[in-house]
Design goal:
1425 residues; alpha+beta; disordered N terminus
Length: 1425
């Protein structure tokens, strides 16, 4: 068996220093003992040990005297990305991971070389610096908010035990390097690191703040390592036999007198004999007679390490001042032995209940959360947030329980009960905490918030001499489970106070371990942009190489350039061409859009804000907006082709309403559910093979019950109830309606009346809910908080019918049955889990000895455990057989109506059977390893041979707007797959009720039990679908597949078949699927079809598929926040998905596509203008413009118009976008970001660059006629004119690309263009060598004539092409814009209705793109294996 490193180190030291044979024998015994202490658990092999009021054993130190693995993280939490020290280097590193930024950095370095002729290299760095600074400001602002949030949390206050030493904190030694460690710690904190140096710095800072406080308690010398030692679990002795595990200040005990008994029982002068003195107390009880040793003579409490004094010495403790402080621990809550004076001046040495020492300074003090350490005592008060993961020691409640709200952790608003440990229940004051001595063996931190395993141990003193068996040392232990721990992020409720020990801090807490970052996602458009950027690099390389070659060719050509280069270009054409390549690389640098990436980030950030601020997707009931958590994938929302959805809590409300039940074979409940209507709709389909007689559903007996009729029935039922017995506890909105149930309850002696009473009495008793009375003015109103909405609905309905659960006091359940209050003793709770699928309670009436087990769970689980051997009770056996058949039939009908079913059963247990079983159950519950498995196994033993009572049916109603949303998404071309754990029939009926399945679909239900049958079934179904599709091209299919079939279908041999079948179906429902299967289905479609997928869910079981999909959406419902934490977008209702996709997603796709194309366009125009000029300067890399204009072109002159296009432009408003969901298909086809559009934009920009250069050049090169005689045909003069025209053309391009013309867009275009002219006016006043007087160029009419002529010539081809495309090859939004324009313009002449316009037909006939696309069927289906 593997031994932990700490144990190995301990054994190594012992073997090294003990050489004689006797000592070797002792080592072997210790070795064996240690091996027995080890565990098979991988967690416990790396366990952390937390010591309280004990010196650390030498096994916690290495050979150098340093603590092993005791540098736990501090409790300060940092969710921010940057620190003051790391911001600059880390942010620069992240920005230069972008290839474009590295490219521009390379160019900046290149321009600093004088050989390449850049006169102002500092100016060349301005664009890159600007981009880096803007990005850094954006990142810093985002991170500042996180830092402020972190500070608020870290500086919160909690009560911590003060003036008490926590031995788990590594000591700080003032050695040679102490001050260096303090300095390193200071920089460690600035960098966000949490290490031993940071701990040293905090200690030094605290010591300085304490001013002259004695630091000897905190700065200690390293302990003297013990060589000769023996060990019981995690305890040790020093060579003199004194107990080093004793309370820190305990005096050495006097040696007990040797007696015959003691000398016989142990060998003297051995390590084993020394061990018997562990935890020694001063011998103050010599006057008492020794009594026979009994294990139970010492109470099960960490406060007692010797036998209790006789009963006459035990009296109630006098009330202390603590009792008068509200909400603080009281010393009167427990009965403890007392003495009249302290035994020692040291308070820690006193017995439990003894008065504190006059010099004791231990007290509760306010401390910041960030100052907490592992092993600290904390006192939590009501409504206080939990600052760390804390093991509960004691609480203010008599049964040592407390209540906690876990909403911040898992989103559940109901209260949960947590239990303090039995051995620490006596800790009521700070002095008790000081006197208790124990340690906790804890598993290491892990992410599972529903699991925790540890054990709390304490030692019983060996030198206690009050019994005949003195010198016997042994340990006591309490198992610590998930129910004994309070997790950070929760809130203490309905409990005055709770004392606990910190076990995990900071980043080790479960909430922080679960706050993992969502997997990094890049949008589809961002990935598609990279090839376009690479294409720009290729174009750049081509024109640089062309310029280099042409320069080499013309090096010896005619001209005067050789006389004026002064040897700078070299003496050969090859060398000149080499230089020209690098010069032109600098010259054409703007072809790569440096500001593209930051501009896209800005646009997507604003889009995320618009989504957050949209009131249409804000849920006022829970004050929940749509929260974008991944900002850079908003354009993906416009290209989603497949949606994968959970059902419960996503399509439904997860708010359960008790509708029907079956008791003793009689069905009760009048209600027509949404799923019932879906089942009826299913029967009306042309393809349904459902027999109405089979299910009992038909239009005659299931007509919808209107509201007035239901109200009348409810009134009748309440009147009949009031005639039988009063029920002041009835809730405001009873969901169960059936007057017949009170008709059957009238006769108390009838069999049915007894069955109904026992049934609802079981519902009132078999649960774990908490009863609250929230309304002080109405104390009769009881509200139930449960761990599941199903359980709360069951208990609430029992309450409404007069079977009221009042409260639970310790292990007593108080109920009111038909007006009569009764009390039951709760013996055991066998809790529900996903494996057992049931929960049970074992109870006993207070006035009876009869023990009863009540069980509720899934019908399949309960039926397996019903009694089958009735012996001589033939009549009972026959009744149970008939009851099974009738109940099974009723439950099947309930399931067909879409209701969630549950069975109830019971059995009587004899005391002879219960006692040995309970012993095994308690042993399993207190076990340290495999606790859950052992408890389940023992529970299985007692949950047998039960008798059936009946079943319940609960409705999980659809969320508001779900059917309409699904119908609209289907129109948009999106396919919806529902992945649920429900039964097949329930899922199908819900599918019909929410419009996922429609009457014109043919249902394909696949159910197989093995691999061979699954493969054959898939092949047969595929052939059937193919043949029917050929016969009727409009035939639509819906696939329904269960979990077992899906398991085999997802195997490599058949996965392509199920994918091909799913592609041919309009809707797919997968039933009884596991979380892993959900992720596998998403991966199958995403990777198999190369399509964009979205997964939406609300529970922890949906996290895997949310992270697997391209876009994950979490619903902040009642199942928890795990899905929200893992998602990219968080919404409150499924219906909000409609606007999120059809409006925000579509807008973002169109805007981003147009903006990226615009960036490539304006950069190509500017770059090729410079390229055309090289024709006239022998391709030597001469600059046409002043370099300042080149630098500012992208960043200042042309950036804002294209950015505002990406932010504000709308082809259609939100209302019209929702009216025509078919518009979304543009994103599915990727109409606006196709490769041919990119190359067409490149060609257009090259053409416009030629016009921008050659028109002014040809018109002005001959010299302009200026009234004052100035020429405008110089190099820089023509360059300034050409640059101004290029800026205007780039900004006017945005105008031609806009769909909506608003004053904002016009103003931005005007101001951006105006900035260019203002810059020239100012710059010409300072740069007098080559730029002076350039402002005069804009003062002649000839310039403005050239400007107008050039711009018109540039845009004639583009405007012509756009007109042709909109008339003869329009996009979908062009058609809808025209339809809306005609309707709005002519609505006073013609009365148009939506029915008169077949939008699908219009799009199919008018749009060339649409007519050749059958959504999702143009993709090549994978060939079935």
């Amino acid at each position: 068996m593997k031994i932990s490193p700490r144990s190995n180190l301990f054994l190594k030291r012992k073997r090294k220093l003990n050489n004689d044979n006797d000592e070797e024998e002792e080592e072997e015994q210790v070795d064996d003992g240690l091996r027995r202490m080890e565990t098979n658990s991988s967690y416990m092999q790396q366990r952390r040990n937390i010591y309280v009021n004990m010196k650390l054993p030498s096994s916690e130190y290495d050979d150098n005297g340093n603590l092993i693995e005791h540098h736990y993280p501090s409790n300060r939490v940092r969710t921010a990305k940057y620190t003051p020290l790391s911001f600059v280097p880390k942010n620069l590193f992240e920005q230069f991971r972008n290839v474009a930024n590295l490219y521009f950095l390379f160019l900046v370095v290149l321009q600093c070389i004088p050989l390449f002729g850049v006169t102002e290299p500092a100016v060349s760095a301005l664009p890159l610096i600007f981009i880096l600074i803007v990005t850094a400001i954006k990142d810093g602002f985002e991170d500042l908010k996180r830092n402020q949030s972190d500070d608020r949390v870290n500086n919160s206050k909690v009560l911590k035990l003060s003036n008490w030493e926590n031995v788990n904190i590594p000591p700080v030694t003032k050695g040679t390097w102490y001050y260096l460690h303090v300095i390193v710690g200071f920089f460690s904190i600035l960098s966000g690191s949490d290490n031993k140096y940071a701990h040293c710095y905090r200690h030094a800072k605290k010591s300085r703040n304490n001013n002259n406080d004695d630091s000897s308690n905190n700065i200690t010398q390293q302990p003297n390592m013990i060589s000769n030692e023996d060990r019981v679990p995690l305890t040790e002795l020093d060579p003199t036999g004194s107990n080093s595990n004793e309370l820190l200040t305990s005096p050495l005990p006097p040696q007990p007198a040797k007696t015959l008994m003691t000398t016989v029982r142990k060998r003297s002068d051995t390590i084993r004999s020394n061990m018997s003195s562990i935890f020694t107390r001063p011998n103050i009880l010599n006057n008492l007679d020794k009594k026979p040793y009994r294990p139970g003579s010492i109470p099960h409490s960490v406060l007692y390490r010797v036998s209790t004094r006789d009963s006459s010495a035990i009296q109630p403790q006098q009330q202390t001042e603590m009792d008068n402080i509200p909400g603080r621990p009281s010393t009167t809550a427990s009965i403890r032995p007392v003495t009249t004076k302290p035994i020692s001046d040291n308070c820690a040495d006193a017995f439990p209940g003894d008065p504190p020492s006059p010099h004791c300074n231990v007290h509760w003090a306010q401390e910041k959360w960030k100052s907490l350490n592992v092993g600290d005592y904390v006192l939590l008060e009501n409504d206080q947030d939990i600052p760390a993961d804390i093991v509960i020691l004691s609480t203010s409640e008599t049964d040592n329980v407390c209540y906690v709200e876990t909403q911040n952790l898992d989103g559940e608003t109901n209260l949960k009960q947590r239990q303090g440990l039995p051995g620490t229940a006596g800790l009521r004051t700070e002095h008790d905490c000081e006197r208790a001595s124990f340690y906790i063996e804890s598993e290491p931190p892990h992410v599972n918030i529903y699991q925790y395993n540890a054990v709390l141990r304490w030692q019983i003193d060996a030198d206690e001499t009050n019994t005949l068996r003195s010198g016997v040392s042994h340990e006591k232990a309490d198992a610590v489970t998930y129910n004994n721990i309070l997790l950070r992020g929760c809130v203490l409720r309905n409990t005055k106070w709770a004392i606990g020990i910190v076990v995990y801090t900071g980043n080790d807490t479960k909430i922080m371990l679960n706050t993992g970052r969502t997997p990094s996602k890049r949008s589809k458009m961002a990935k598609a942009t990279n090839p376009h950027v690479i294409a720009n690099f290729v174009i750049l390389a081509i024109i640089c190489i062309v310029s280099s070659i042409m320069d080499s060719v013309q090096f010896y050509g005619s001209g005067s350039s050789r006389y004026f280069d002064y040897g700078i270009e070299g003496t050969s054409g090859s060398y000149s061409g080499f230089l020209t390549f690098w010069v032109t690389l600098i010259l054409y640098q703007n072809i790569v859009p440096i500001s593209l990436y930051i501009s896209v980030e800005i646009v997507k950030t604003v889009a995320a804000y618009f989504i957050f601020a949209d009131l249409d997707i804000y849920y006022s009931e829970t004050d929940t907006p749509c929260i974008p958590k991944t900002w850079n994938i908003s354009d993906d929302l416009g290209q989603i082709e497949y949606i994968f959805s959970d059902k419960t809590g996503t399509l439904t409300q997860n708010v359960m309403e008790y509708r029907k039940c079956t008791i003793n074979g009689v069905s009760y409940g009048i209600a027509t559910t949404e799923a019932t209507m879906g089942a009826l709709k299913r029967q009306q389909t042309n393809h349904s093979n459902v027999d109405p007689e089979e299910t009992g559903l038909n239009m005659d007996n299931l007509e919808p019950t209107d509201l007035d009729e239901m109200n009348q029935l409810r009134d009748d039922m309440l009147k009949k109830q009031s005639d039988l017995y009063p029920n002041p506890h009835m809730g405001p909105n009873p969901t169960f309606v059936d007057p017949k149930i009170f008709d059957d309850l009238k006769d108390d002696d009838s069999k049915q009346s007894n069955a109904i009473t026992h049934f609802y009495q079981s519902l009132a008793l078999c649960h774990t809910v908490i009863a609250e009375r929230p309304d002080e003015n109405n104390p009769d109103f009881i509200e139930y908080k449960a761990q599941s909405p199903d359980e709360a609905a069951l208990v609430a309905t029992a309450r409404d019918l007069g079977f009221v659960f009042l409260r639970r006091d310790a292990n007593k359940l108080h109920v009111k049955i038909k007006g009569e209050e009764k009390v039951f003793v709760l013996l055991n709770v066998l809790e529900f889990n996903s494996t057992r699928k049931r929960m049970s309670v074992i109870i006993k009436p207070e006035d009876s000895d009869r023990i009863v087990l009540l069980c509720k769970g899934a019908d399949s689980v309960i039926y397996e455990r019903l009694c089958t051997d009735f012996g001589s009770q033939k009549e009972l056996g026959k009744d149970q057989e008939n009851l099974r058949e009738s109940t099974s039939k009723d439950l099947e009908q309930f399931a067909n109506e879409g209701l969630r079913t549950l069975c109830l059963s019971y059995r009587f247990i004899s005391p002879e059977e219960y006692k040995p079983w309970n012993k095994r159950f308690q042993e399993a519950a207190s076990s340290i390893h495999n606790r859950e498995e052992r408890v389940d196994a023992v529970s299985e033993e007692i949950e047998q041979n039960m008798l059936l009572m009946g079943g319940t049916a609960i409705e999980d109603r659809l969320q508001e707007g779900v059917p309409e949303t699904i119908a609209e998404l289907a129109k948009s071309g999106i396919k919806l797959w529902v992945l649920t754990g429900d039964k097949t029939e329930t899922a199908i009926n819900i599918g019909f009720s929410c419009n996922l399945l429609t009457t014109d679909m043919e249902l394909l239900v696949l159910a197989a039990s093995n691999r061979i049958d699954t493969a054959k079934l898939l092949e047969d179904t595929l052939e059937r679908v193919n043949s029917e599709s050929k016969a009727n091209i409009d035939q639509r299919f819906a696939l329904v597949i269960d979990g077992t079939t899906l398991k085999y279908a997802l195997e490599p041999a058949t996965r392509n078949k199920v994918l091909s079948l799913g592609m041919r179906c309009a809707s797919v429902i997968c039933c009884r699927v596991s979380p892993k299967q959900k992720a596998q289905v998403v991966n199958l479609v995403k990777k198999g079809l190369k399509v964009m997928t979205l997964a939406i869910g609300d529970g922890a079981n949906d996290v895997s598929m949310i992270q697997e999909a391209n876009v994950g959406v979490g619903i902040s419902g009642v199942e928890g926040r795990q899905a929200v934490m893992a998602s990219d977008y968080a919404i409150a209702q499924f219906k909000f998905l409609r606007k999120l996709l059809l409006v925000h997603g579509r807008w973002s796709y169109l805007r981003t596509a147009e903006m990226i194309m615009g960036f490539f366009y304006k950069n190509i125009v500017w770059t090729f203008v410079l390229f055309w000029y090289q024709i006239y300067c022998q391709f030597n890399g001469s600059m046409l413009f002043d370099y300042a204009l080149v630098t500012l072109y992208n960043v200042v002159f042309t950036s804002l118009p294209i950015i505002f296009l990406g932010i504000w432009d709308q082809d259609l408003n939100a209302k019209i976008s929702l009216k025509y969901p078919q518009l979304y298909r543009m994103g599915l086809r990727n109409d606006k970001f196709k490769t041919w559009r990119f190359w067409l934009t490149i060609v257009d920009s090259i053409f416009q660059s030629a016009v921008c250069f050659f028109f002014p050049y040809m018109l002005l090169v001959g010299g302009a006629i200026d009234p004052t005689g100035y020429d405008s045909n110089g190099l820089y003069e023509i360059g300034t004119i050409v640059s101004s025209i290029s800026v205007c053309v780039a900004n006017f391009f945005v105008i031609t690309s806009l769909y909506s013309y608003t004053w904002i867009q016009g103003l931005i275009v005007f101001l951006s263009t105006l900035v260019y002219y203002i810059f020239v006016a100012i710059y010409s006043q300072f740069n007098t060598f080559i730029f002076a007087g350039h402002l005069r160029l804009f003062g002649t009419g000839l310039y403005w004539l050239v400007l107008i002529l050039t711009c018109v010539a540039c845009f004639i081809p583009r405007v012509t092409a756009k007109h042709y495309l909109r008339q003869y090859r329009p996009y979908d939004n062009d058609i809808i814009r025209e339809i809306e324009l005609v309707i709005n313009k002519n609505n006073h002449h013609h009365e148009y209705t939506d029915d008169e316009i077949d939008v699908d037909a219009e799009l199919a006939s008018g749009s060339t793109q649409a007519s050749t696309y059958r959504y999702n069927q143009d993709k090549e289906a994978p060939k079935p294996s």
